[in-house]
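ugh ok fine here u go
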Amino acid sequence: MAKPALEGNIFTLSEKNEHERTKLERLSKSQWLSDYAIDIFKTMKESEMRRRQVFFMSTQIDHRPKLLQLCQLITRTYKLSRCALHLSIYYLDRFLDFYTIRTDKLQLIALTCLHIAAQIENQDAFVPRYSEMNRLIKDCYTAFEYKAVERKVLTFFEFNLMRPTTASFVEMFACSFLTRDDYASYCQQLDELPALAASYPRYSCFEQMLASLAQLLLRISDYTLSINRFCNEPPSLLAASCIAATRQVCGVPKRWTPYLTQLTSYTEHMVEPCVDVITLYHYYHAMPAVKGQQLQESNWPSPDSGFEESLLTPQMKVVSVEVEAYNVITVQLQSPGRQQQTALGKRSRDNDKGDLQPKRLKMDQGHEQT
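structure:
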């Protein structure tokens, strides 16, 4: 691993997003830029080899996206670290792979894993209590249940809770994955090919470009949580793949360089399979709004396009507007008195018809006799 240069990788951010600015300032002041960075990296590489494997034996894998969204909501609400979120999903995947949990207790497991991870990864003194997190799910569980599940999780992992995640390695590389040579080649590419200026922004300085790409790198690292096939991949490999995907998405001329091989200990051939998956996932979820409007207004020529049509948010809004335009429920409903009157009127008409039929029969018989 190459030693990161402290004076060359400190960057500033605009004050538009205070939350992102504080997170990235914390990166620049963290231990990754210290003299022990190389030793820390070697220790993390050794520790990731002791991570538990996921055998995908759980029959509750379909509930994983909802549990992930719940953990992300708690993380944003209480401003927990990204490493705490990744570590909680590591606990959750391994625990659910070994046990079969009642469906109504899955949220209890997710919140307990997040609480344990926050105690380990959060550098701040504030860690939300179980009662505070329980309010967000309408007080579904008791304090006794949280404590019981916490003991079960701790004994399951045998108190071996310190494990590196993708977020750990990404935060380590976030201040040093881009060099000034990359910035110079990026600006030269925009000067030689003016058509690329419409797709990629022009940065005024190296620090601005590093700050922008570092924010995107942190967001792309969260994509790895949603891809199930990455559960057993080494976190350092996923972090290196996120770096390559970020450079490719942002238009850096070289997706991988010998410097990155020295920094991450991975070659381009080793990270290429994961990079392709992460890049496709990013392009799918970062679809521009203009393209979404074009898909909505177009006529779908084939049944296959209906899958993407159902995933578009604007399409869901149009359906809700149409439902609100017609007050179908109030039109169809009638008062009980009205229904009784209608039923009595119908019965009286039926009786009248029944009375008329015998009269007609008597008249026809009278004509026949005459």
